[in-house]
Design a protein that fits this description.
Length: 320
Amino acid sequence: MQNYNELAYPDLTLLEATVFSVDVVFARVIQVTGPDAVTDLAAASGIEMPLDPLHSVALGAQEVTPLDMAAGFATFAGEGPPVERHLVTRIDTSRGVNLYEVIPIVSQVIERDVANDVTAALTQAGARGTGQETSIGRPIAGKTGASQEHRDAWFVGYTPELSAAVWVGLAQGAILMEPPLTPFTVTGGTWPAQIWSPVRSAALSSSFELLNAGDTGVLIDVQIDTSTGFLADPFCPRRHVARVRLPADSVPTVVCPIHNPTGVVAAGSFDIPDVISMDLGSAVMILNEVGFLTTVEWQDGGDLAQGTIFNQLPSPGFPA
């Protein structure tokens, strides 16, 4: 599947798609749920801007205000009830007589377990995904966002007591936020996340109790090259390498053929070469050619010539 910046991923769980903002997964999800269910739940959760029930709503193709976004995410923070908006919540006289106070009407629009699962996923998005720039020394849940061609950038995040949304764009209109106009391409994980972090850090105290998603089956941590969708090898550009958690039957079995100079190699189909007795230069070249990074440890080899390999770990023939 192809995503933002033409990054390619193998089949992902919804959790991993959320963490790494793989929007094409949600384009498929809305085909299953139908857009009416999505827009109805958005309205019930605090989105007051009218949304047309179109499939493109899953990709943020319609306008929503930052206040709407903060209110919608606050529904997850509160474990299901929507948050009513009030400019003034209470008025007391100088003698302590209460003249006015908002009495909220509590209704559950999202099941508590579902809201907590969303929070668990969005917490991981902040910890290891696209929202890592929001680090404030405690868990937060949040999501980055961007419009086509970088005309808008978002970060919406929350803790149990506060929800806040940051939008970055140009007041003159829908203008691309790319060099040379901006110092770098602006995405939700850059300026919006960096703005959100200091604004919220001074005011927060409580932490989420739920930091991990519920039972999602057997998952395996694996590094993939997001520009190709194959297993990453040492030659893949580090900016394209991501560690994701995949179901065991969805893990790619081919090492990246674009950056691997020896061509496509099926994972697990070859053993570690035997380089014992070789000189250091030859040993490193052979190991690099099949996709390994090497670390050299110097020890006394007795009568062997300096630079001769006399041991290796893992051992020769170990299945890679």
